[in-house]
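User: What would this chain look like folded?
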Amino acid sequence: MFFSFLKKYILFLLCSPFLCQAQDMVYTQKVLRTLCSKEYAGRGYINNGLGKAAEFISKELKKSNISPLLATGYYQFFDMNVNTFPDKMELSINNKKLIPGQDFIVAPYSLGLNWNGTLFDKKDSVTFASKEVPLLISLKKKLTFSVATGYEKYSAVEVLDTNHRFDEIKKVQVHIENKFLTKYICKNIIASIEGTTQNDSFIVFTAHYDHLGMMGKATYFPGANDNASGVSMLLNLIKHYKKQAPKYKTIFVFFAGEEAGLLGSQYFVEHPPIALSKIKFLINLDLLGTGSEGITVVNATEFKKQFDLLAKINHDKKYMPQIKQRGKAHNSDHYWFTEKGVPSFFIYTLGGIKAYHDIYDVPKTLPLTKYQELFHLLLDFAEQVSVL
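Assistant: Here's the prediction, encoded as structure tokens.
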């Protein structure tokens, strides 16, 4: 009797949707850990970090047996210029050695500089300028790194200001080496799944897979929330749709060059491999690692009918605690599509961690509070928005 009950209980667990969800989260964590590992070098332009990430994603697509959209394969190639810092990254102020990423960052448009000096002007309460070399030092409450596609004729450093430790700057030793790369080859990654009823119109899911890369030989920016989380969501959606085909042909685009100015999505729109007019709706995903305070939808006021549908689904199913509306914004890869008249949303989660464009955006900090709920909200919305 006991063994019969145990057998039925085990069978129940194996068929339980909660276990399936747990398995999905195991896969999600694997994707996050891989893309944010040191091997991938912040998915930037040093040590082939971006290229390794593209290779990982394309391998996952092949495992899921999803077809490339292009006859030539998954990749849509484009090139860009980018300023990088692959080597020395050293700074001491008032004989105190600072730690890259933790205590200071270099402005992404900076030139390299090797200098030891003492003469500084205090421009204002948080800005110091050298009298001898083109060097600017700014005190900040938070360090936020970025990517630049050009460079200026000076070096700029941002230093974390804790307890006014640098009210005065009397002595500086700095050694920063930059390398400006021209026509760096990048790849958008594009795949598609045929629809069961409609293949001449498309639902499109997008997320960028690039991040900020490295700053010196040892410091890298993992980019878990931004945007390994979005990549993981697309890969999970693909796994779902391969088991349960969508009604409309569904296209998945992993963009490069987002952090450098939405360059990958701009190239896609300017060299579209599909007719943009046939996109029924596009959903761009970024910063999906939290959700305790709900989500924000950019373009909610631009596409009110579609937003009302999303809000109704959420009201009926109680997926997210709230959905905040936001208007049109040039803040992610949906933007160029919106400019071309493609109906689109940019969705990101709210609450939880504050790490952003820094060394602390790592997988273990992501609570993924409403990740599964958002997954199901996206599935429901994609199915219903196609018939509006």
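The longest strand covers residues 179-193. If you want, I can go into more detail on any region.
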